[in-house]
Design goal:
The complex is a heterodimer of chains A (about 350) and B (about 525). By secondary structure, chain A is mainly alpha-helical. Chain A contains 14 helices and six strands. By secondary structure, chain B is α/β, with parallel strands linked by helices. Classes of the chains: A mainly alpha (about 350), B alpha/beta (about 525). At the A-B interface, helix 1, helix 9 and helix 10 of A face helix 10, helix 11 and strand 18 of B. Bound molecules: adenosine-5'-triphosphate and magnesium ion (MG). The site of adenosine-5'-triphosphate (ATP) has 19 residues of chain B, from strand 2, helix 1 and helix 14.
């Protein structure tokens, strides 16, 4: 009898611990959120942090990194890394601006071409790692330089400002809509794009056969190959998805800043990697989730926001962000192995 | 005289599994003590407790009468306890010599690493166990059997008082095993206490002075192995009489399934120690189980890898025909699609994603059959996985559990089941019962028999002669990458195989059967 009871208790304890770790980043997010409420400055008794306007700002600021981080999650899940995403974002922002303003292209063709550029760029990086066998760190380090170079050439080295209207040298007003807010002026469209991307990715990873292959490749590439998993195809597809999402983020970036500059997105790859790591995805591959990444990105966003609201020195902000990343990684080491 | 090792009332629990329960275990100096039991019985767990790998447990341990509680493997090593782990723990990127002396590298007078001396001593150690392995070769390139010889050499070099060998021979062929037994007897005579774990029953009577059987974490019995028959031992392990180990091979075979004609692979970048096919011809009929025998380095694995399309690049000559049509194996995906499955010899490195679930590992090769348009129907894959687990009598908790928590033999069953789910016509098996207990082995043999009766062809590479003779209809012997002999198991025995494998005429009749 006692044996059976014992069993139940232990399994319960195990699964509580497992759940805690599985949703580590969600709990982290909640903790940071609560802390933000406590430490938020107040105005006329109202907590500034939780004002609708401020919260909308938080998620809007997160949306670009968030979209990139979803793609980064895929790459990290197969045990790779993509350092080129920030540069691809810059290339896409420049591309949107140049095509619509200088070449007078319409909204749809511009967006489609820019997305296609990101997709192909990513796929080529995938080919280099999967077929030639160069480590993704090196491939995408080179990709970063190449994408920046292309962006400089395309823009003539200058930022291209975006003005809206029907005339020449003006971008179509439909493009400006992407930066607007909807639902009674509450939810910024970039946030909706981020949400759609994230949900699509979560669903995709849950139901598709492809995702099983992806996790298998990240978990043990040799075993995956011997089991008949199309390893090369999986890798190329994953890098293509990551490139596609980086260029989508670039479009969002251009519309939010009303310009496309070859220097856009510098260092974004590191923020994206940070979001993924805080989200509990293992850099070794094969283990992790997009939901965690979303929570990780939001956590960083809330942290940035509350530090800014309190006028904390930006250098101190960097320190604190660094410590949060270390703390998240340290928590992962404690993860129960079974 | 105090016993060398006395473990009392040892207990260890993993979640809901009681791996060891109130186990008393005694090892004397100069004793070879065999530890027997089915997969998951708790043998490795008990020994990992002794070797300091597991530090949280119930009960007490005394060495030479002094109570000890180790804080880790290094601590235990300092007390003279060394263990050869079942799952090899070598660093693949380092050379054989570096692995043997890992953590206690030999130094020159100016404190730099003395490579020359390490290589020399490594060579001597390896020679002692009778293998001519080059100590400079990276361990990652070695076959499982060769890696086992390296871990054995490493353990011996520790000059331990207590030497634990957890399935040291599961990938060794009989001639290597004989050499190891010589070393074991030498050590025993110099007073070392040895714990010997193996699923090969014929080894126990040969080398052990005493045997203890574990079942479900508890000691069942302890006996003198020379006084009991194998059948009695097996019954003690399994808890019920096991009727027959091997189902008699039925000679009812069908059309020719696989024909290999003068297959040669000339590797573009030849690797030392790799024995690519150098003129192999053989056939497998549907419904036929063909064995591949040969010593370590005879090229058994290399042949299977070539057929599965995973051998390193090079020029392949000769022909491979599947059901009369020539095929060119280019990779697992393409070969699997033609109906040829492969179970690799090293399940941990090449078979499983250890931290993924049993379910995910079981279905990964057959995903397209569970659902449509790339979407997985979870119910279907679950059903398939459950059915396969039943069929193989997998011992597990839940399908969501990490496959790495299964016992060695059960992990092997998962890799095996994965291939069966692809419904192959021909199965290439490389040591499919390595580390699998007698009961489960009998089940796998029974299953193979069943599948063969349904028309499956099997090409089975094994280092276990009783297995080859018992399971196969025919055995092809490889030596130096060539097929040198072919026997029907109906009219030849282990001695013939061994003689052909070693390349001399004399017989080894002392090799006993099960
Ligand atoms: N790290 C672990 N986490 C959870 N369960 C474990 C772990 N290690 C072992 N177990 C469980 O403990 C039991 C005993 O395992 P153990 O490895 O000792 O068996 P074994 O007798 O060595 O089997 P085999 O012959 O297959 O090597 C098994 O049920 C196994 O699943
Ligand atoms: Mg074991």
């Amino acid at each position: 009898m006692t044996d059976v009871q014992d069993k139940v208790v232990t399994t319960d304890k195990m699964s509580v611990a497992a759940t805690l770790f599985r949703f580590q980043s969600v709990f982290g997010l909640i903790a940071v959120f609560v802390a933000a409420i406590i430490f938020s400055p107040r105005k006329n008794g109202a907590i500034l942090f939780v004002s609708a306007d401020n919260l909308a700002n938080v998620v809007r600021a997160v949306s670009e990194i968030g979209i990139i981080a979803v793609g980064m999650t895929f790459v990290i899940l197969i045990g790779g890394i993509d350092l080129s995403v920030g540069a691809v974002l810059g290339l896409a922002a420049v591309g949107s601006a140049v095509l619509m303003v200088e070449n007078d292209w319409g909204f749809l063709p511009s967006v489609v071409l820019v997305l296609a550029i990101g997709l192909v760029f990513g796929a080529l990086q995938g080919v280099a790692t999967a077929m030639i066998g160069i480590q993704s760190f090196i491939v995408t380090l080179a990709g970063l330089q190449i994408a920046r170079g292309l962006a400089r050439i395309w823009s003539g080295g200058q930022g291209v400002a975006i003005a809206y209207g029907d005339g020449p040298k003006e971008a179509p007003t439909s493009f400006a809509l992407l930066g607007e807010r909807t639902f009674g002026g509450l939810v910024p469209i970039p946030v909706i794009i981020f949400a759609v991307v994230a949900i699509a990715a979560v669903v995709f990873l849950r139901v598709s056969a492809f995702s099983r292959h992806l996790y298998a490749v990240g978990g043990n590439e040799k075993a995956a190959r011997l089991s008949g998993v199309p390893v090369v195809r999986v890798k190329i597809a994953v890098f293509a998805i990551c490139g596609l999402l980086a260029s989508l983020a670039g479009i969002v970036h251009a519309v939010q800043l009303n310009q496309g500059s070859p220097n856009d997105g510098i260092g974004y790859e590191l923020d994206a990697i940070a979001a993924v790591v805080i989200g509990g995805t293992s850099l070794a591959g094969g283990r992790g989730s997009v939901a965690g990444t979303v929570a990780g990105a939001l956590l960083l966003g809330v942290l940035n926001n509350i530090l800014a609201l309190n006028n904390i020195d930006s250098n101190i902000q960097l320190l604190i962000k660094g410590l949060v990343i270390v703390a998240a990684a340290a928590l992962q080491r404690l993860r129960p192995t079974s | 005289m105090a016993d060398l090792v006395r473990m009392a009332a040892i207990g260890k629990r993993y979640g809901g599994v009681q791996a060891c329960h109130e186990v008393d275990f005694v090892l004397g100096a100069g004793e070879v003590h065999a530890l027997l039991g089915e997969n998951g019985a708790g043998k490795s767990t008990l020994m990992k407790i002794l070797s300091g790998d597991i530090t949280e447990y119930a009960g007490s341990i005394a060495i030479n009468g002094t109570p000890v509680r180790f804080s880790g493997p290094t601590d235990a090593q300092a007390a003279g306890i060394a263990m050869i782990h079942q799952e090899l723990d070598l660093v693949p990127g380092l050379s054989v010599a570096d692995n043997i002396f890992l953590g206690r590298e030999l130094r020159t007078t100016v404190r730099t690493v003395d490579r020359r001396r390490m290589e020399r001593e490594a060579r001597e150690l390896l020679d002692r166990s009778g293998v001519g392995l080059d100590p400079r070769r990276p361990v990652g390139e070695l076959r499982v059997g060769e890696q086992q010889l390296v871990t054995i050499a490493k353990a011996i070099s520790l000059d331990a008082r207590v030497l634990i060998m957890d399935e040291p021979t599961s990938a060794l062929t009989s001639s290597e095993v004989e050499r190891l037994f010589d070393v074991i007897r030498e050590l025993r005579n110099s007073g070392v206490g040895i714990v010997y774990i193996s699923h090969r029953m014929e080894e126990i009577a040969k080398v052990a002075d005493r045997a203890t059987v574990l079942r479900n974490g508890k000691i069942v019995t302890s006996f003198d192995p020379r006084k009991l028959s194998t059948a009695e031992v097996v019954e003690a392990m399994v808890g019920r009489p096991v009727q027959t180990m091997f189902t008699t091979p039925d000679s009812d075979t069908g059309d020719e399934l696989l024909r290999v004609e003068n297959l040669k692979l000339k590797a573009r970048r030849p690797r030392p120690g790799r024995r690519d096919p150098d003129g192999i011809s053989l056939t497998v009929r549907s419904g036929e189980i063909v064995g591949l025998a040969g010593l370590l380095g005879a090229g058994r694995t290399e042949l299977l890898e070539t057929l599965y399309g995973v051998a390193p690049g090079g020029i392949r000559t000769g022909r491979i025909l599947l059901q009369g049509r020539p095929i060119r194996p280019r990779g697992p995906r393409q070969v699997l699609a033609q109906g040829i499955g492969f179970v690799p010899e090293d399940r941990r490195a090449s078979g499983l994603v250890l931290f993924h679930s049993i379910l995910a590992n079981t279905v990964v090769s057959s995903l397209p059959s569970y659902g449509r348009l790339g979407v997985i129907a979870r119910r279907m894959e679950r059903t398939a996985s459950v059915r396969m687990a039943d069929r193989l009598r997998l011992k597990f908790g839940r399908l969501q559990d990490e496959v790495g928590t299964l016992s060695g033999g059960n992990q092997q069953k998962v890799v095996f089941g994965r291939m069966l789910l692809t419904e192959p016509k021909l199965l290439l098996l490389d040591e499919p019962t390595r580390g699998v207990d007698v009961g489960a082995k009998a089940e796998i043999y029974r299953l193979l028999g069943e599948l063969a009766a349904q028309g499956l062809g099997v090409l089975l590479a094994s280092s276990e002669l009783p297995e080859l003779v018992g399971v196969c209809d025919r055995v092809v012997v490889l030596r130096d990458g060539r097929d040198v002999a072919s026997f029907s198991t109906a009219d030849s025995g282990e001695g013939d195989l061994l003689a052909a494998a070693m390349g001399h005429g004399e017989m080894f009749d002392e090799v006993g059967g099960v």
